[in-house]
């Protein structure tokens, strides 16, 4: 069952030098309780898509088409793009929470982490007593691996990993159904990063929230995601289970991305990467935007824009795997 349904969503950035089509006709489902990883080179539109869903876009960004529907367990649904200011504030904490790249920016530097959790609870759960709030803050911090006495610490007194954990605890405060994590751990060392993400997977099993996870680290993404959506030039070009994408990528771009990253397990392979660079989003090449960089392109690829059919948007590979990459 889906918790979020994105349909034909497009986002432009309006600038003096031309309109940047950052997200172009994206349709994507988030299933209840899953971890969905968004992958793609820098500039492919991952953050713009996530920010559109969380209603965090600011001018010059403009949503030019599409819909985002949030589905509650009781069968009711919310038209996310139509939410007014006050309903949006409630939606963002109670139903969807965001953990940003830099926990330092998300945390208030002049307030202790305990007080910040308390603030969220006080504003959004008016009937909750002071002692219940304190208890809940300690419990949330404990869940993310922070001891109770640390609730009196200010963000600058915590390590990067601890700050990230505190940001996650705050995001969990109201038991949201969806957590969006945009590069939540890149500033941390690899071991801390993996630890935190594995804990998020465990927390998810307990609390049942779904996660949209964005990172440049493809091997980490494979490790913690149930499903993956690959973006190129503002479009989703392939979706599938992490396993299927890892074993048999179907889009040539996915194959290139996988070859660009060292494998976590198994024999070392040459890192082939992808030739060339991503296109200018103000003036996309006709047809498939990837065709100028694609070693498998045929003449048709430069004139026909492939639809996302059978989980892959490629004229050549509608139904079959390109090769077994396992
Ligand atoms: N404020 C802005 N004004 C104009 N263009 C923007 C703005 N913000 C982002 N863009 C452009 O939109 C496109 C998509 O950016 P976005 O940050 O969504 O990509 P991304 O895949 O998340 O990249 P990264 O992995 O580097 O975060 C890029 O071409 C970027 O230059």
Structural description of this entry:
By secondary structure, the chain is of the alpha/beta class. It is 31% helix and 23% strand. The chain contains ten helices and ten strands. The protein has helices spanning 46-53, 85-95, 103-106, 113-124, 130-143, 160-172, 190-207, 218-224, 242-247, 252-260, and strands at residues 2-15, 18-31, 35-39, 61-71, 77-79, 96-99, 178-182, 210-214, 227-232, 235-241. The strands form two sheets. The protein has a six-stranded mixed β-sheet, sandwiched between helices. The protein has a four-stranded antiparallel β-sheet with strand order 2-1-4-5, with helices on one face. Helix 7 (190-207) links the parallel strand 7 (178-182) and strand 8. Helix 4 (113-124) crosses helix 5 (130-143) and helix 5 packs across helix 6 (160-172). The radius of gyration is 21 Å and the shape is globular. Adenosine-5'-triphosphate binds next to strand 1, strand 2 and helix 1. It is found in: Cell membrane. Its main location: membrane. It is a peripheral membrane protein. Belongs to the ABC transporter superfamily. InterPro entries: AAA+_ATPase, ABC_Ni/Peptide_Import, ABC_transporter-like_ATP-bd, ABC_transporter-like_CS, Oligopep_ABC_C, P-loop_NTPase.
